[in-house]
Write a structure and sequence with these properties.
Helices cover about 40% and strands about 20% of the residues. The protein has eleven helices and twelve strands. The longest helix is centred in the C-terminal third of the chain and has 17 residues.
């Protein structure tokens, strides 16, 4: 039996176990998905212990995505984003100095969510709201796909640092990435083709981070918030005729990407999606 797992603290709320278990059941795979909740100071020991126990792969979630970089050999995308959410032990030789590979499938979650809804990203104008971990994955995903990216954040300086990283890590990124405060949404969103809310606004309160009057029918809107699924931003975007994509799609496709990386098989997306949405 293969064992995969999730590393985070806390992990009791996670929807990854039922999503991955549904994939194993659908494909008749002899595998299980378990959770680990180490103390923050024990992250390295937890990763090494998982490998010693024969765990085949780990997802990594809050608060460990950045710190996990110290214990893996990150691929190019994870290194550029500065965060790891998937660890693969299959390429190592189990020696103490041989690190597992680290990956970031959150970016693929963004890219594949838009592709699922037939939204193209190349040569489009994209706006990302926020500058935290999810925003970093979104900004790199959009820039790598060929979009011109504007990052708007409550603290403009943090948005500028993210854009500088995108500029250094993406061809033509320096010319195609811009940053500003949330006040720039009023001028940027009306001309945008793609919008990603990568903040938690809308999760605890019925609020939107984007002025409703800026939304329009030529826009595709992805809200990373998945509780609730139908956020105020998505409702207001839909009323304006925009294409709307709820946060469960991003959560689904980051898991799909991890499954395919670990197993080398096409993921049963419908089964994983059904299991995920049954718990939302």
């Amino acid at each position: 039996m293969d064992v995969f797992g999730l590393l985070g603290n806390p992990v009791g709320h996670s929807l990854s176990p039922p999503m991955h278990e549904a994939a194993y059941d659908e494909l008749g795979t002899d595998a299980r998905y378990v959770t680990f909740e180490p103390a923050p100071d024990d992250l390295g020991a937890a990763i090494e212990g998982a490998r010693a126990l024969g765990v085949a792969g780990l997802n990594v979630t809050i608060p460990f995505k950045q710190d996990a970089l110290a214990y893996v050999e990150p691929d190019d995308l994870a290194a550029r984003i500065g965060a790891v959410n998937t660890i693969d032990f299959s390429d190592g030789d189990d020696s103490a100095d041989d690190l597992p590979t680290g990956h970031n499938t959150d970016a693929a979650g963004v890219r594949r969510s838009f592709a699922h809804h037939d939204v193209t990203l190349a040569d489009r104008n994209a706006v990302v709201v926020g500058a935290g971990g999810a925003a970093r994955a979104a900004a790199f995903a959009l820039a790598d796909a060929g979009a011109a990216v504007h990052v708007a954040n409550r603290t403009a300086e943090r948005a500028e640092r993210l854009v500088a990283d995108v500029g250094r890590g993406t061809p033509d990124g320096a010319e195609r990435a811009t940053a500003g405060g949330l006040d720039t949404l009023e001028t940027r969103v009306p001309d945008a083709d793609v919008l990603v809310n990568a903040t938690s606004v809308g999760m605890e309160e019925d609020r939107s981070p984007v002025p409703s009057e800026t939304l329009h029918g030529d826009l595709a809107v992805l809200d990373a918030v998945y509780r609730p699924l139908d956020t105020r931003l998505l409702r207001e975007a839909r009323e304006r005729g925009a294409t709307t994509i709820d946060g469960a799609w991003m959560l689904l496709y980051q898991g799909v990407e991890a499954f395919e990386l670990w197993t080398g098989r096409d993921a049963p997306v419908d089964a994983m999606n059904e299991a995920l949405r049954a718990r939302l």
